[in-house]
Amino acid sequence: MAEAGEAPAAADGRDAARATGPYRILAINPGSTSTRVALFEDEQLLEDHEVEHPADSLAGLSRLWDQFRLRLDTVLELLAETGVETGDLHAVVGRGGLLRPLPGGTYVVNQAMLDDARANLQGEHPSNLGCALADEIARRGSARAYVVDPVSVDESGPLASYSGLARIRRRTLSHALSVRACAQWLAMDLD
After folding, report:
1. For residue 21, how many other CB atoms are within 10 A of its CB?
2. Residue 1 in contact with residue 106, Cβ under 8 Å?
3. Angle at 127 between CA 124 and CA 130, to 5 degrees
């Protein structure tokens, strides 16, 4: 990862090095019945939208990945309405889904992650769409795509995987991003 104030490396040819700040960051959070989209300039929130997806709009989309185009169009329409072009973005962050277990942190979206998300590796959940939405929008401009603290963050010790039955291992799937955010807010209050 790049140091604060430094442009991330663009090994795949995307021009992330053009960024000198302020950084424009698009965050996408696909949920079960809505898609939340927020635009930041550095840490300043510029736009925050939640688009509901009524049951009738999802009715013909029986599988999770059938919703990809609907949600992509939702995000692109919001960008157009706010006058933001994909080329204006420095980073696009998608909610990380049920990927392989990994430590908390920020991860560049790559093909292996996209494959795991599309395979619904640890289950089918709308958050699995997050990395693919971020990647598609980033590719339309010159940004990089990331996920931060996906649902599959597992920093538990080995004992936490014991279920009491030898053949059954417990999996750690949680809202790590929310847990970390709460801990950071509390830590700032304690200062």
Report:
1. 11
2. yes
3. 125
- Pick from 108, 33, 41, 109: which is nearest to 74 by CA? 33
pLDDT digits (tens, 9 = 90+) for 83-121: 999 999 999 999 988 888 888 889 999 999 999 999 988
Asked if residue 19 lies in contact with residue 7, where contact means CB atoms within 8 angstroms, the answer is yes
Pairing of strands 91-95, 44-52: unpaired
* pTM for this predicted structure: 0.78
> DSSP per residue over 9-60, as a string?
P-TTS--GGG--SSPEEEEEEE-SSEEEEEEEETTEEEEEEEEE--HHHHTT
pLDDT digits (tens, 9 = 90+) for 8-59: 444 444 444 455 678 999 999 999 899 999 999 999 999 999 999 988 888 8
DSSP letter, residue 82: T
* Contact (CB, 8 A) for 120 and 172: no
Tell me which H or E stretch contains 183.
helix 176-190
